[in-house]
Amino acid sequence: MNKEQTNGIKKGTGDGLAPSILESIGGSSTHVVINFHLIAADGNVFDIPVYIGSMITISHSAYRSKASVYNCGSNLIDGFAIGNKYVAGTIIKGVFTDDDFNSVLNTIRDGIISGLDTSKITTLGSQKTISSLMKDDLMSCDINIIYTNEYTGVSKYEVIYDATFINSGQVASINDIITETTISYIAKEIKTMDDISTPSTFASNKQHTRTATDLLLGK
User: Fold this and answer.
1) The whole model's pTM is what?
2) Which listed residue, of 83, 86, 159, 216, carries a Cα 20 to 30 Å from 197's Cα?
């Protein structure tokens, strides 16, 4: 280590740069809260946050098609035509006897069944349609990713807006100590990493409800 760097602080070298502190963010200190938005009878939007404590891995990526543009008589690229943007990713979570995500699905399923007139369900095929609720049956949601530094407690967050689960898979093997569930999603937009104190433009009405991030941080 040279004398210009001490305890993770990179000092200025006379060029007028202010000192900067590099604080790492580990996956073990990352939290995921899925935020569903529902419309109440009075027209207000309220949030249903689900903390995914069994999350092992979460990934996201953005892809935008861009076509090269050439001017007449030139074989050099003069620009790019911007096409559609595509946001997608996966969530990998562990499977436990008390599963957080499956418990929410079962609660929603029970609510759907309790609101139906079961006397009109006459066939076994119709009963199967409400016996379970799968991930791809859920409405779109916001995925909040909260990053923290385990030493300083500094928190940052990202939001994946309007994510829709499109498929899920699970494999149990005698070669694995734990069982994992993989859930894939597509989304509209990603809010890049920002300070936790910066407000986010959730769809909820903040005059009546708190965001999932607020609930997670005990605000």
Assistant:
1) 0.69
2) 86
